[in-house]
Amino acid sequence: MLVDFLPETAYIFMLIFARIGTLFMLLPAFSEQAVSTRLRLVLALMTALLLYPMVSGYYGAVPANLAGILVAMAREIVVAVLIGMSVKLVMAALQIAATTIAFQMGLSFAMGSDPSSGQQTVQIGTFLSMLAVTMIFVTNLHYLMIAAMYDSYQLFPVNQAIQIGDIAQYATDILAQSFVIGIKLSSPFIVYGLIFQFALGLLSRLMPQLQVYFLAMPANIFVGLLLLMVLLFTLMTWYLGHIEDVLGNFIVR
Fold it and tell me: In angstroms, how far is the first alpha carbon of the chain from the final one?
């Protein structure tokens, strides 16, 4: 039996797995700390096997030396990092918004471990992160992530050099956009905080003997939670639209 095809098959599968495995390490919902490493590995292997018949034709022959193989693998990893970090930065905007919201509500001291990132964050941030991950699966946005994996082979051909300048410019733009999204998400609470603090300052000037800020803290938390409850659906729907727009940049229409 001739086995001349085995080196080329192993080479192509290794490169596909390098791109898909890196994506599964970075894309939200799949890269959460609560998701087992073995489960991510199995998902990456299964997806690489499914994509192999569809994308293997994009790859050329096996390079003649080890340096060529390492360069090809590095190219695949860079492309996957670009796609994964783009969505990851938009997810980080949720933490910016949550920190601002908690500060305006007086709950910035309520810290806890975020199961998504494994770091200490405000409890509102933990709630919003888990809600965002849940809504990604409920709204089938994870299918859009898989579509981005496949279409990335047309947007970033494997046999062409990566435009580092374009990647750096896009990374700068997406980083700036994440801050803008975080501020927009928390803008109703920033306005509420300004009005509430202005009203407390005015009341303290009218009644200097009254401990206004001590008495108003429960009201601040109550009104802030009420505002969050009213705006939560609108904010999360608008936020998921931004995630869809970012993923749409990597899908061929």
Answer: 43
Question: Can you give the pLDDT at residue 1?
Answer: 44
What is the domain count for the chain? 1
Instruction: Give the number of residues written for the chain.
Output: 253
For residue 37, give the amino acid letter.
T
pLDDT at 66 over 60: yes
The CB density around residue 85, as the number of other CB atoms within 10 Å, is 16
Strands (E), 11-54: none
3-class DSSP assignment, residue 122: strand
Q: Report d(CA 158, CA 18) in Å as an integer.
A: 12
Share of the chain above pLDDT 90, in %: 0
- Whether residue 211 lies inside any domain: the answer is yes
**Has residue 192 been placed in a domain?**
yes
CB atoms within 10 A of CB 70: 11
Q: Which domain holds residue 153?
A: 5-248
What value does the mean pLDDT take over residues 187-197? 87
R_g (Cα) of the chain, nearest Å: 23
Higher pLDDT, 143 or 34: 143
User: Does a structural domain hold residue 253?
Assistant: no
For residue 113, the cross-strand partners are 120
Q: Lowest-confidence range among 15-24, 80-89, 151-160?
A: 151-160
In a domain, 139, yes or no: yes
Q: Is the predicted pLDDT of residue 215 greater than 80, yes or no?
A: no
CA-CA distance, 98 to 108, in Å (whole number)?
9
